[in-house]
Write a structure and sequence with these properties.
heterodimer; A: alpha+beta; Helicase, Ruva Protein, domain 3; seven-stranded mixed β-sheet; B: alpha/beta; Rossmann fold; two-stranded antiparallel ribbon
């Protein structure tokens, strides 16, 4: 160790015991701790009791541990909620509506959920030996100021979550969901300097995901993009990864006497304050000042670490494992040593550059690092393994059973925190309010010329094919993508989700997701329910067993201190919980992201409350995977579910600029009976293909099904199962009522299907034909749509090509 | 004693198709063994009948694809793969493996550069068999299809070499339609001995019929064309073994 380094002071004491409330808050702001005055006072009390001042390392550790990003204090807060004039107290959103629902379902369905909420990701049982897991994270602020690197490390980070789940799950598929401004946004309409145009954000983000996922060799198999002006200043980037692991390798326990080792990349100044940066709003200054919070991705470094971890797990060398994500070593060591206690030696960490001070090493969010706890006698084998995979592996410290986390740097104690007290953040108390809009259908429904309307909807950014982006992702690496994002006879028709084969197991894993932010602008409760329904429905259409579905909830919200915005979230969470319970689909993991707003000169611009529901479903047999594309030119076309005709939130309404119209309600119990009957029919081999009816409504679903180009479609709307309101033709064509599936069956099986669906909203509404290549739809004996499918497909396929 | 013919899969940091390639080899009858380049020596090749370089991004491919892997291979084992082939062994490179074999000089001169689209392309491609003497293609039909997934798959060669290769039987596979701008639509090349094959498409991703994008695919109900690809080389290798041609 050179003299100069030894002489250098790598930490400092921060006197806080004498400070007043305002001074404490100012200190928090100056140090970018993102701690409130109340938090700082709690910290002050802690150190007053200890009769000493904290070090900068200790303050940074507490700030990171208590940050919204790491601690989810809003989902834990006590909320005084008023909905439509009725007051209630929500005693923690997470406890009441997320974990509460899951606990109830676990009681009803023992054995299905293997682990939820207590590890990096939740696990569900695939078969007797293996479990699958999924984790979805957001990387919004980094992607806003540096789209490529932000999305790149967003995916890299969630992959590490899976690698760090259990004793190391194998990542097998990824998904990505983006919310951007429209790619054709007028540059002049953006009212803040340095905000990147949505097109620049989109291109950067897609390439970021592409370069990380492809290099890691993890197929990116499903996703979604929402385009809305409300995301111009604060785009959203969700990245998710699924994994598989032997059930026996899920439990892990920290005990005293283990060595803490770090594998993978080196530690540098990139990614300082990432956790706290994510827990504040964006401003124009963010684009200049917070670059340091964005990490730099190196997928090959992570690939090497992943190969190492998976091999070490196979050899039984791992006792405990976690990833280095937000908060870096501090967070990883906190997770590992919070109960057992132990020592960390910062001088052991390999650095990217010299001169890092203690807190920088301990808090850096440099990518591609995994932290393991291992038995001392296995160190030689692990070191040899690291050499094999050309990755760096060092001993950072050990666990010691003291219950205290001590961090040393060059012989000096720079942090000594009682782990028990480290996590005691003051509970937050918040106020929220929600008033449901009137929801009258103000939409002037045009009559006639439905064909033109269909062309408009198919060409809208909300509906057009994502093919240019999907093809940039290697969605077939690992050779297990049995239902691909684009499939059907022409290999380019849209599907409802992806299905992954898992080596050595008969059951397969289906993945699907849903988000409907437009609905939430009017009715977040209905949005929450509908997102759960759509995810479940897509998984069922993909072949999943309706009784073997698990969900993830991810929320992005603007300012939680604004009662209106928080009120929308509360309603959304309640809707989602109600639906999840009805479908008995437990939440196994989730994440929330707040402060998604941008401070412009004209005031803050917030995103709408955005909920992403993603789901994992177990497909019992590959035979149940039919795809969503027409397979034969002589089939019966059937519909399951009620068309009620609410047009609020629909693409059709959006094109007309209609806001505030009532969005569809979801009858979960009714829908579930239908899904169960559908799944039975599927298992009996009676279904050829099935597509969920969602954005764009029935007309779009029918066209998309026929994009496999195996025949024309003739549909009669008169047979549709309808709601009481008696929807008109345009509503039948374009309403986005939930709970509906459009499917193809052999004409010879119609009688059998009618018997099976008796008492359910089911009808045979048409047929596929070889005589022509058109989508023909009739209503009341009149032809309302007669469109050449090839032309429709061209509109749908070319919508994004000018932009990507 | 392991009866099945050995296949050695060389893995570099960033190689990411080794597992499914190993699976495809196993299903065809081989005994595959994956070795990291850090642990490979000339002795590693002893006993192997086939050396496989699978797909991925060796060392990230931040410089020309395959270049770093070539240098590392030469540094560690020199021309051992070339000698192995001259001694009667077989070498197969898929996607990134094809790029590495090109750089190692085990295939006719040329380069694999950025697709004309400038993009990564993950799609299926129609393929046409251009030779009857490739041991790898002995069981696939005249035309078939496989998935491709690459950003640097455009084959280019000086002058009219691509056309020459076509006429002289070095071109094993052509795309039926232009996919990436490859000269003469070249998808796969072989050497003079026919024992070295490099191809951009991924046969290991279509070993099961269920991996096809179309549920109505009318091929074998169980196996995809990739399985026939690996079975082809397996049969040739085992036939040699049983006649003692190359012991």
């Amino acid at each position: 160790m050179p003299e100069a380094v030894l002489d250098r002071q790598t930490f400092r004491e921060i006197p806080i015991r004498h400070l007043g409330g305002e001074e404490l808050k100012r200190l928090s702001d100056d140090m970018k701790l993102s701690l409130s005055r109340e938090d700082m006072e709690a910290v002050q009390t802690h150190f007053t009791e200890l009769e000493r001042e904290p070090t900068d390392v200790e303050l940074e550790v507490i700030a990171q541990t208590w940050s919204e990003h790491c601690k989810h204090r809003i989902f834990g807060a006590k909320i005084a909620h008023t909905a439509n004039g009725v007051q209630e107290t929500v005693d923690g959103l997470f406890k009441t509506y997320v974990k509460g629902v899951t606990d109830e379902i676990r009681k009803r369905k023992p054995g299905f959920v293997v682990a939820a909420f207590d590890d990096n990701a939740g696990f569900i049982r695939l078969d007797g030996e293996k479990a699958v897991c999924l984790k979805v994270e957001t990387h919004n602020h980094p992607s806003a100021i540096e789209p490529y690197a932000g999305a790149n490390t967003g995916l890299g980070g969630v992959i590490r979550d899976i690698l760090g789940a259990g004793k190391g799950a194998k990542p097998i598929a990824s998904c990505d969901v983006f919310c951007f401004g429209s790619p054709d946004t007028d540059q002049k309409s953006i009212k803040a300097e340095d905000v990147i145009h949505p097109l620049g954000v989109m291109r950067g983000v897609v390439r970021g995901v592409r370069d990380y996922g492809n290099r890691m060799g993890i197929p990116t198999v499903c996703g979604a993009i929402q385009f809305d002006d409300s995301y111009i200043y604060n785009p959203l980037v969700f990245c998710g990864t699924a994994g598989v692991i032997p059930i026996a390798d899920i439990p892990k326990e920290m005990i005293a006497g283990l060595k803490i080792i770090v594998v993978g990349g080196r530690t540098g100044r990139d990614g300082l304050h990432g956790a706290t940066f994510s827990s504040a709003s964006l401003t124009t200054d963010s684009h200049e000042e917070d670059q340091q919070a964005v990490q730099i991705g190196n997928p090959i470094e992570e690939k090497k670490a992943a190969d190492f971890v998976l091999e070490a797990r196979r050899r039984g060398l791992i006792e405990f494992l976690t990833d280095c994500g937000a908060g870096g070593f501090s967070s990883a060591a906190g997770e590992m040593l919070s109960e057992v206690g132990g020592e960390i030696f910062l001088e052991n960490a390999p650095l990217k550059e010299p001169g890092l001070v203690s807190w920088e090493i301990f808090l850096s969010e440099s990518q591609e690092r995994m932290v393991l706890a291992v038995k001392e006698e296995t160190l030689p084998e692990l070191m040899e393994l690291a050499e094999t995979f050309e990755t760096e592996c060092i001993v950072l410290g050990h666990s010691d059973g003291s219950g205290v986390l001590k961090v040393w740097h060059d012989g000096q104690l720079v942090c000594e925190l009682d782990c028990g007290k480290l996590h005691e953040a003051p509970r937050r108390h918040l106020v929220s309010r929600f008033d449901k809009a009137k929801g009258a259908l103000t939409l002037e429904l045009p009559v006639g010329d439905a064909g033109t309307r269909l062309r408009e909807v198919l060409g809208d950014f909300a509906v057009v094919s994502r093919e240019p982006i999907i093809r940039e992702y290697d969605h077939e690496v690992q050779g297990n993508t049995f239902l691909k994002p684009l499939a059907g006879a022409t290999a380019d028709a849209p599907q409802d989700g992806a299905v992954m084969h898992i080596d050595g197991s008969k059951p397969l894993m289906a993945m699907a997701l849903s988000l409907l932010p437009e609905w939430g602008k009017t009715d977040p409760f209905a949005m929450g329910k509908a997102c759960v329904d759509e995810t479940v429905r897509q998984l069922v259409a993909c072949g999943a067993d309706p009784s073997q579905i698990a969900l993830l909830d991810n929320f992005c919200v603007g300012n939680p201190e604004d009662p209106g915005e928080l009120g929308g979230l509360v309603e959304c969470v309640k809707g989602m919980a109600e639906a999840a319970l009805a479908y008995e689909a437990p939440f196994v993991s989730g994440k929330d992201s707040f402060y998604n707003y941008f401070e412009t000169d004209e005031g803050p611009v917030s995103i709408p409350v955005t909920a992403l529901i993603s789901g994992l479903g177990i497909v019992r047999d590959g035979q149940h995977v039919t795809g969503a594309s027409l397979r034969r030119p002589d089939s019966a076309i059937c519909i399951l579910g009620v068309t009620r005709g609410a047009m609020g939130g629909s693409v059709f309404a959006r094109i007309r600029g209609v806001q505030g119209a009532a969005v569809p309600e979801t009858d979960c119990a009714g829908a579930l009976r239908g899904y169960q009957a559908f799944a039975d029919a599927l298992r009996a081999g009676l279904i050829c293909s099935a597509h969920d009816i969602s954005e764009g409504g029935l007309a779009v679903a029918a066209a998309e099904m026929a994009f496999s180009e195996v025949g024309g479609l003739e549909i009669d709307l008169d047979g549709l199962p309808l709601g009481k309101a008696g929807p008109g033709t345009m509503q039948k064509l374009f309403a986005e009522d939930t709970g509906r599936l459009l499917f193809e069956a052999g004409a010879e099986d119609v009688t059998e299907l009618e018997k099976r669906f008796e008492g359910l909203p089911f009808a045979v509404i048409g047929k596929s034909v070889s005589a022509h290549g058109e989508l023909r739809i009739e209503a009341g004996g009149e032809r309302v749509i007669s469109e050449n499918l090839k032309e429709l497909k061209t509109i749908w396929k070319s919508g994004l090509t000018p932009y990507y | 004693m392991e009866e099945r013919p050995h296949a050695l899969l060389l893995k570099y940091p960033g190689t990411n198709c080794d597992e499914e390639t190993g699976r495809a080899l196993r299903l065809a009858g081989f005994h595959p063994r994956v070795e990291m380049i850090t642990r490979v020596s000339r002795e590693s090749l002893e006993g192997a009948r086939l050396v496989v370089l699978s797909g991925g991004f060796s060392y990230g491919d931040y410089v020309m694809a395959g270049r770093f892997a070539q240098l590392e291979t030469e540094r560690r084992i020199g021309d051992a793969i070339g000698e192995f082939v001259r001694d009667g062994g077989y070498a197969l490179g898929i996607c990134n493996g094809f790029q590495i074999l090109m750089r190692l000089g085990l295939l006719p001169d040329g380069s694999l550069i950025d697709n004309t689209s400038g993009r990564f392309q993950c799609q299926w491609a129609g393929l046409e068999k251009r030779c009857e003497d490739s041991p790898y293609l002995s069981k696939v039909p005249a035309t078939f299809e496989l998935p491709v997934a690459h950003a640097e798959g455009r084959f280019v060669a000086a002058d009219d070499k691509a056309q020459e290769y076509l006429e002289e039987g070095y071109v094993a596979l052509q795309y039926t339609e232009d996919v990436n701008g490859s000269a003469a639509r070249i998808a796969g090349l072989q050497d003079g001995s026919r024992r070295v094959l490099g191809l951009m498409p991924h046969p290991e991703r279509f070993v099961y019929a269920a991996q096809h994008y179309d549920r109505e695919w009318d091929g074998d109900p169980q196996w995809g064309w990739g399985h026939y690809f690996f079975e082809g080389i397996y049969e040739v290798v085992t036939a040699e073994k049983s006649t003692g041609a190359l012991v």
